[in-house]
Amino acid sequence: MSEKSFNLVTEPWIKVIDEDNLEQTVSLEQLFTNAAHYQQLAGEMKSQDLAILRFLLAILTTVYSRYNADGKPYEWLTIDEQSMRPVSFDEDEFEDSGKDDLLQTWNDLYHAQHFTEIVTRYLQKYADRFDLLSSEHPFYQATRAQYDSLVPKNKVVAKGKGTVAVKQMNRTISESNNKPDIFSPNTSPHKNDLSLAALARWLITYQNFTAVTDKTKVVAKEKFSVSPGWLYGLNPVFATGNNLFETLMLNLVLVPQGVDLEIETISQQLAWELPIEEYVKARLTGIVPGNLAELYTIWSRVIHIEWDNGQPLIFSAGLPKLDNHEAFLEPMTIWKFNKKDKEWQPNLRWLNSLGKAMWRNFGQYISVQQAENSQREPGIVTWLHLLQSKKQLQMRQLCASLQ
């Protein structure tokens, strides 16, 4: 009997709106090939769309920080042909031409109005890591043996503890076993029903917006606070274009602003490129990733899914919380200066500010004062300004893009 498979590279799972205002569900290959023909992402929630957008950007950032628009490795980077990962970095040569090369790649892609074959080649190289049902490398998950090796003995899968209900991961319901959601879009017998495509979308979203109610933690030498999910602690800001291709391109920060570019900035430690044990070891350090692709796909939980008659039983183990103070690599947040600690931190949105329009806090997005520590632009705004200064974006496009 052949092993079951649901490969995100080739199976449709991402919801989009096409040129005819119709909803489609597409695969990763289809999305990157036809991005200019889709208006926008169209998942169940805008927060889910943001999580998926960052996941897509992680793939593009990984590929185009290693290869130019022609699919050739940059001269200052040595790439292992088998893994398509960087193995060495010439700092002197990068200092001479690295930033210009990356900006040229962005410019070439933007004017071509499509992504190139190298993205598909990368996805095909790691296709086995994008299989939601793989027995060896399940997407965004650990195998049963890996999960059991990472959690306390009394929390292993056989004990049946540390589970998260599908209806809790599905944020259109967001119901625990203790507090029923009266106004759920699904009736009680079907609250845990979810297609494989929807499960993939919510799995990515859950890693970004996890709460902190979990009782199971990954085993570590020192005690730690469980991560609430990186996006959970941001007030996000991003750019939108006339179609999905433009939206991806406007947010494709190949030259991160406010940080020094070095090998860590372009040498991604991605969950689908590394053994899970190695990835979790890096997460246990509590250090904020040094590159965007890793930051966009950072895990807040180690997830393992057991399947019982086609129904998922989801096990979840918490990973350490990351300190987002002065994490200037993150481009999609507004900032505020903490006078007590004398450092910048993301300016979070609270319940009493949810109804405030973006324009009412214009100064948090666009610097209008010169005083030190009075304002700090979001990284995505500085990136758009850089593109405009390099004549790669017109001012008209720049003004219309920020959301």
TrEMBL record:
Source domain of life: Bacteria
Name used for this protein in its record: CRISPR-associated protein Cse1
